[in-house]
């Protein structure tokens, strides 16, 4: 699978959407995408809570359309198995039909004290299990205001990614998540340039271009503008992915924007 040439719309449901809501949401998104499929290079992924993965996967399996969303999880444990109460391994996710896993989200870095080194171990485990890791990076507001964003991004890229990383990076400035505030086009372009310049240094290979997504208060209204930014390969959507209409509007806006000016 060539992950580098795709554009992505990924919904991170976080610890939201109770069971019935999640199943209904997945069904509505899937049925709509089946009726009006986006072009094949637009990959849609939904990342529900662990508890919904199995049933959503079974429901998705009834739809054989390639336009169905893929399934992602929101974390995994670095070890393949063992006495780790409350944890879920990458292989267990694969057993449930999961193909992507979000790692190092700022909410996990903050609430669970996840370090770059711990995230790198998870990236290794996810990759070994055959999952595509989506690694989140991004600076806090104070770091941005003190002009330290680039060094934070460099540290996170160096620490969280493996050499030969084959996955996706999501730039999610912590101050933009859930705040309704998004970076200006100019700021986002600058940050994407920094990230794209840093990635080959970390990866030490130039035969793979890592797709870089943006996340933080994404809505359908900004999607066209976002997808016209050079070096942006998709969006990681939080609250706007919790309603089928707003998530589908983002997919439609991405489709229109990319169809009118393919990059
Ligand atoms: P919001 O879109 O709700 O700001 O969340 C973004 C996010 O954290 C996605 O991972």
Features of this protein?
263 residues, alpha/beta, TIM Barrel, 8-stranded parallel barrel, 8 strands, binds 1,3-dihydroxyacetonephosphate
In words, what does this structure look like?
The structure is a single chain. The protein is an alpha/beta fold. The chain has 10 helices and 8 strands. It has one domain (3-260): Aldolase class I (TIM Barrel), CATH 3.20.20. The protein has helices at 19-35, 50-61, 90-95, 106-111, 116-129, 141-145, 149-160, 185-203, 220-227, 244-260; strands spanning 7-12, 42-47, 70-73, 100-103, 132-137, 168-171, 212-215, 234-237. 43% of the residues are buried. Bound molecules: 1,3-dihydroxyacetonephosphate. Residues 12, 105, 172, 177-178, 215-218, 236-240 line the site of 1,3-dihydroxyacetonephosphate.
List the helices and strands and how they pair.
Elements: E1 7-12, H1 19-35, E2 42-47, H2 50-61, E3 70-73, H3 90-95, E4 100-103, H4 106-111, H5 116-129, E5 132-137, H6 141-145, H7 149-160, E6 168-171, H8 185-203, E7 212-215, H9 220-227, E8 234-237, H10 244-260
Parallel strand pairs: 1-2, 1-8, 2-3, 3-4, 4-5, 5-6, 6-7, 7-8
Helix pairs in contact: 1-2, 1-10, 5-7, 7-8, 9-10
Bound molecules: 1,3-dihydroxyacetonephosphate (13P).
1,3-dihydroxyacetonephosphate (13P) binds near residues 12, 178, 236, 238 and 239.
